[in-house]
Here is the input.
Amino acid sequence: MLFMVIERFPNCDPVPIYRRVRDSGRSLPEGLTYVGSWIEPNFDRCFQLMECDDARLLQEWVLSWRGSGVTFEIVPVVSSDQTRAVVAPHLDRQP
Here is the structure.
């Protein structure tokens, strides 16, 4: 499953978080895969796409960041291609 993780940097300051990632890695438990990320220009939020089959791995990962000041919002998402396949049979049906 894919998850969009919305991470908020404390005080819009990414430096402590980037330093921790540089020095210690992402702290991902086995089975949780980092797919990619995008950062807002004002450094308020980071949008990370993560993949795993067990949401408890996300909980484990979030707990590993305790004390850093970072907050997380985790949203399950479905790719556009997969959604298109689900929606396609309904496109020509009348409501």
User: Anything to note?
Assistant: The first strand starts at residue 2 and ends at 8.
